[in-house]
Protein 1
Amino acid sequence: MIQHSEKTNITFRKADFETDAVMLHKWHHEPHVIPYWKQNFPFSLYAKHLKSLLADEHQTLWIGAVNGNEMSYFETYWAMEDPIGRYYEAAPFDQGVHLLFGDPSYLGKGLAAPMLMTIMQEIFSDSRTARLVAEPDIRNEKMIHIFEKCGFAAESKLDLPDKQALFMVCTREEFERRMNGDL
């Protein structure tokens, strides 16, 4: 079991097609990922999909690692330029986040919240961003709990084209309060 301590090193790097396509394709075929991401396409279709995501300038794709072991995938994006921007009053510098743990051996180890807080730190490093949004599948209770643990508050249920989602928001003030331990 992975312990959280000074010895747990969480890192992120930007995704790259040549380096990551096969790994990401495999992760999107994991039984715990399929119901929420629905990207379990044959590799030829997945490769086209991934190339379009990487070319989309409104978002950044990240590979997350724990102690050097790559095990998660995150997408950060400008909410106003994303389809979610049509479902709420998006401000110009609101950002959003999606995530998945691809390697199932990392599930249930207590890493989701620290990893989410780490990527949130990256997102809020842009001083223009005052809000971070997420829209987890309403059925994904574990992910909703992680978002709440990291300072997100539920705003509304949304009927999106691909899922029923819980729209959640974390303000910069709430994030900083949690980072400072003022719970």
Protein 2
Amino acid sequence: MANEHVNRVVVIGTGFVGSSYAFALMNQGISDELVLIDLHESKAIGDVMDLNHGKVFAPQPTNIWYGDYSDCKEADLVVICAGANQKPGETRIDLVDKNIQIFKTIVHSVMESGFDGIFLVATNPVDILTYATWKFSGLPKERVIGSGTILDTARFRYLLGDYFDVAPNNVHAYIIGEHGDTELPVWSHAEIGSIPVDQFLKRNASYKQEDLEKIFMNVRDAAYQIIEKKGATYYGIAMGLVRITKAILHNENAILTVSAYLDDEYGEKDIYIGVPAIINRSGIREVLEIALNEAEQQQFKHSVKVLKEIVAPRLADVHQPK
């Protein structure tokens, strides 16, 4: 027992998303150690105190403390939730320049500690900032992961389940592409149980194709709707981050729609984008290349193009440290 590995997770940024993630992580008892880092020291220390006061109700007593970048050296996973928030009327892409500069400082500070684990990026625009984290860190692409379209996929499954009156766990469907306005539903592989959605439509005359299109639009625009109503989204993405964390720390080989680096998958290279991938202790074990129909292929290419047009002028000349 003395040599048993202790799982340490470091959360950088204890705003709405970071603190919600820490709360959800502790409640599921997934990590042994949880370190919170934030520029606003008093806020993060307050979170540590608050979380520790609930420790007796947690499934296991996670060791939680306020730390600094030196704590990253022994971390298995560093989760970045820091950065400027998306404001009402602002797209995720509008945040890019502000957050790239913030990330440069954060990632360099983490790597200076001697960190050799896995990065998980939550901050928007997540695909671009995951690419930036990979570039700034010099880590293998498999060990830099973005939250990608995990939340969009969860929203999709929930809304389809609500529409067809089945549990969302029995809805199998993906949203892929940019976590943003150019994302797309993979209708060609959407199933309720093992029944394709287009066949499920035929079971009841009240089910209509136009309703499915509205469902996707509600998925795509969900963040805007939530931000307008409560200022920010954080519970859903926090639980998605915990799901990825569990897949990593428990070596699950789980298939999740994360932001992964493409190296010829889907005919694309040198881009991080939301796709199904197998996640385990090593990070991204494999990107799953599902067969898209012609329309989906074109939509995916458009999503890649939009991201590359933003990435190229900002990060193409960044050379990874050796």
Protein 3
Amino acid sequence: MKTVLITGASSGYGRATALHFHAQGWNVVATMRTPRPGILPESDRLRVVALDVTEPETIAAAFEAAGPIDVLVNNAGVPSIGVFEGTSMDRVREVFETNTFGVMATTQAVLPQFRERGSGVVINVTSSVVLGHMPLSAVYKASKMAVEGFTASLSLELAPFGVQAKTVEPGACLTTNFAASATNGTSVDELVPAPYATWAKKTRDSFTGQDQFTEESDVAETVWRAAHDTTGQLRFPAGPDAVWLAQAR
């Protein structure tokens, strides 16, 4: 029976992915910064483990507790919305610490066992922002584009050892808490310097006209497909809006 370790599994895409792999008969190690009872169903094939991708000690402890795994899903991430000029460098570093360096840290932790065994899959969840030019997302897109480039090069490094690296690119989802957390507790208006205000409002209003969105199940199913892909495909858009952007590109 195979085992998957998923970061950021307390809600949204991570939780949906954990439930999907569990339903398919896999062992699931669902990690999150602060485990809480009731987030996921009790099962002898599903363990909840504490892991903060910005804390090396918790990464090491989580992988030791997990034991051998077959697939790593780097899903943990923090969103960020706002005009770059109005975004503090502390916030920029915070976003990169989780979205980029956290992915690298967990990946580095799992590679020795994958390489020695001659198999394993690393799946890095990025975003559809990498598929097009989207305003009010400069910092977030930069953090995710870095992961895209990292994964592309990594896949070449790992291929001689039978290990794969892939990205899943989810579209916009209305059922996650992305919008609420994207501004780090600050209203979008506060992150928009006055000269940008009129333009930013028009831009935000244009988003409401979107008629295609991604469901959590779209992402879970795409991660599942990426984990089982044998064609060498590197990037997997998830959700109808992401697929459209990928095709348009």
Protein 4
Amino acid sequence: MPEGDTVWNTAQVLAKALTGQVLTGSEFRVPQLATADLTGKTVVESACRGKHLLLRVDEWTLHSHLRMDGSWKVYAPGARWTGGPGHTIRVVLRTRDVVAVGYHLHELSLVRTREEAKLTGFLGPDLCADDWDPAEARRRLAAQPDRQIAEALLDQRNLAGIGNLYKAEILFIRRVWPWTPVRDVPDLAALVGLARELLTANLGRWTQSTTGSLRRGETTYVYGRRNLPCRRCGTPIRSADQGERITYWCPTCQPAPAERG
């Protein structure tokens, strides 16, 4: 899942391939950037903020969002592109040594680097960044006490980087029912700290694990495990729509208030 750790890893791949390189060609396959051309410009930096990728090219920043299906792939010149169907390609950047291809990219835009704040300034503390601020993250969560905690965790204005996978796993580990109002969540500080711990543990690798295992089928506690036995208690994992996303939880380990003894 392209959550904060995946976006961080993608930024590192692009940084290794492109930083310091002069672009020998650029191609944008989206109407709003059809006439843009970065040829001759130098890639200064590849960075990210939450789920937002920021490729800085001289005075410009190419901003993209992966959402559920986006990706960037790097190839040697002349190599076959294997990242997906050609019609899903949104950006092609060429240097003398590599070709970077962006597939299914969302919210694609090109802005002056000095204006980046217009695109990312609303984000909460970045869970994968060196300037991570847990106190500010707690403050933002607590500012909406009536909101369901699962939806509050997905709001990038509170904490930047959490997606549906980490949302479900964080709440399971902390034994919190996903529909619990923020005001009733015990120890928000511990929950925020766990979020940081889980995401940063996966920096530098593509397999996202919250259980500590990298074996196929063993990487999550509840996410994607509907009707499978809970790894703690054996109760079948449940799933349900919550807002615009699907929530996974264990009804025994994360009981609703009325079900608690």
